[in-house]
């Protein structure tokens, strides 16, 4: 129904207030308003409140279907993706995931293996309506020399369809090897990447964080941490990152993922951490599906009693930027997933209570991660911006979030894309034991 010409008027579309700055419409209590979207030459020429009497006869009437901007997935691991058939997690725990992935990486992650699995992931993300992806890249020697060139090629291949970013990933102990870490930071800078580490409560954490910040400042890099992905209340590295940012006077963007242990800590400890996170201007991404899967596994014949996610509501109330993202897909850290940000949002709504009211939570899968990733004009719908959006069947939240919306329409630069998900069988030859 959407013409291939790239120029048309979509009438009677349901847009969300939080993702359409500048739209003056009558918004309902769920934040939706009816609007007409004019598309010309692949751009949004204008968005105005819908008025039936003023709609031209040749407009395409969407009948009040929801239209969202294309998604931004700011925390993924597409270098690990889809290895599950050859390297499952034996017990579903974090340690089980770490060990299994380490073995698989050392044995199997050639440039071709990584590239084919990455491309598979990106085709899925694109078909689901995602426009930008940040991936972490395991960067323990010698993997950094294999994966970073693959990433650079992949970014070029996908330019114009998916804006791909990468952050290096290593345990913070790796920073102790000063010369090697300096080389890594230089390599990341050369690839215009993001500097990332996984923080643990090691005795020299503060010193190691200072080294990370020093390298980021030296090369002008943004930072991306995995922090406190555990139920251990003694894990307070989120606070340590905020403190290090403040005393180093860091002015780049910092994204911190997971922060699970925060949900388990006493209120006073939490308040102190949130004060510092807000003051330091950190952004936080929760990975609801992966956290639900990995956290609170107590061994055989037990039921999880904790959801695993961090305190996003309390953070947002303090003005901290918050996002949700996919994290792992079909690897030992998460046995499922397909880089579908609608699934992430649906799960986040249920796990994190993104409802009653919905408020501006939709920003967490579009506008906010776009801001953290420094992607201008991405994650919102506005006149003058690219016509990159998704037309759903649902006309309200309960319709949108009850079905997988497998028949959604993805529009890029004003034109409907072919939404073809790659066949799992393509990866069969990489999965042979
Ligand atoms: Zn992660």
What this model shows, in words?
The protein is an alpha/beta fold. Helices cover 32% and strands 19% of the residues. The strands form 4 sheets. A 5-stranded parallel β-sheet has the order 9-10-11-12-13. It has a 4-stranded mixed β-sheet with strand order 3-2-1-4, with no helix packed on it. It has a 4-stranded antiparallel β-sheet with strand order 5-14-15-16, with no helix packed on it. A hairpin with a 2-residue loop joins β2 and β3. α2 (111-128) runs parallel beside α3 (143-158), α4 (178-190) packs parallel to α5 and α6 packs parallel to α7. The longest helix has 18 residues, at 111-128. It starts with 7 loop residues before the first strand and ends in a 17-residue tail after the last strand. The mean pLDDT is 97. The structure holds zinc ion. The site of zinc ion has 6 residues, from loops. Residues 200-417 form the Amidohydrolase domain.
Unique bound compounds: zinc ion
SS elements, strand count: 16
Walk across the major sheet and give the strand order: 9-10-11-12-13
User: What structural class do helix, strand and pairing data support?
Assistant: alpha/beta
Contiguous uncertain segments of 5+ residues: none
Order of helices and strands: EEEEEEHHEHEHEHEHEHEHHEHHEHEE
Termini separation? 46 Å
The whole-angstrom Rg is 22 Å
Largest sheet: 5 strands, parallel
List keywords for this structure.
binds zinc ion; globular; five-stranded parallel sheet; single chain; alpha/beta; hydrolase; 433 residues; 12 helices; 19% strand
């Amino acid at each position: 129904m959407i013409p291939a010409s790239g120029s048309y008027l979509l009438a009677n579309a349901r847009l969300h207030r939080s993702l359409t700055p500048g739209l003056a419409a009558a918004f309902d209590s769920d934040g939706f308003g009816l609007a007409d979207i004019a598309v010309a030459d692949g751009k949004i020429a204008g968005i105005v409140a819908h008025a039936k009497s003023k709609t031209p006869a040749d407009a395409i009437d969407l009948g009040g279907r929801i239209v969202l901007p294309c998604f931004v997935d700011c925390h993924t691991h597409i270098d690990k993706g889809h290895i599950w058939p050859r390297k499952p997690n034996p017990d579903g725990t974090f340690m089980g995931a770490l060990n299994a992935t380490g073995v698989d990486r050392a044995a199997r992650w050639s440039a071709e293996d990584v590239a084919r699995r990455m491309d598979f992931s990106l085709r899925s993300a694109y078909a689901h309506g995602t426009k930008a992806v940040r991936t972490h890249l395991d960067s323990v020697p010698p993997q950094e020399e294999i994966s970073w060139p693959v990433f650079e090629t992949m970014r070029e291949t996908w330019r114009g369809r998916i804006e791909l970013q990468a952050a290096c990933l290593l345990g913070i102990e790796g920073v102790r090897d000063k010369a090697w870490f300096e080389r890594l930071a230089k390599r990341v800078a050369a690839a215009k990447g993001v500097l990332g580490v996984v923080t643990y409560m090691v005795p020299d954490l503060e010193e190691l964080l200072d080294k990370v910040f020093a390298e980021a400042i030296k090369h002008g890099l943004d930072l991306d941490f995995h922090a406190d992905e555990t139920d251990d209340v003694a894990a307070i590295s989120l606070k340590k990152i905020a403190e290090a940012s403040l005393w180093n006077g860091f002015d780049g963007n910092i994204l911190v993922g997971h922060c699970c242990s925060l949900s388990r800590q006493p209120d006073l400890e939490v308040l102190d951490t949130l004060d510092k996170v807000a003051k330091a201007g950190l952004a936080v991404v929760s990975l609801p599906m992966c956290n639900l899967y990995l956290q609170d596994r107590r061994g055989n014949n037990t039921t999880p009693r904790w959801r695993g996610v961090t305190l996003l509501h309390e953070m947002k109330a303090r003005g901290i930027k918050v996002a949700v993202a996919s994290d792992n897909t079909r690897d030992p850290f998460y046995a499922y997933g397909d880089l579908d940000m609608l699934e992430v949002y649906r799960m986040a709504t249920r796990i994190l209570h993104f409802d009653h009211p919905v408020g501006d939570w939709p920003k967490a899968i579009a506008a906010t991660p776009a801001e953290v990733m420094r992607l201008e004009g991405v994650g919102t719908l506005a006149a003058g911006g690219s016509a990159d959006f998704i037309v759903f069947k649902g006309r309200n939240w309960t319709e949108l979030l009850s079905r997988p919306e497998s028949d959604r329409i993805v529009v890029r630069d004003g034109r409907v894309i072919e939404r073809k998900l790659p066949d799992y069988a393509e990866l069969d030859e990489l999965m042979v034991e």
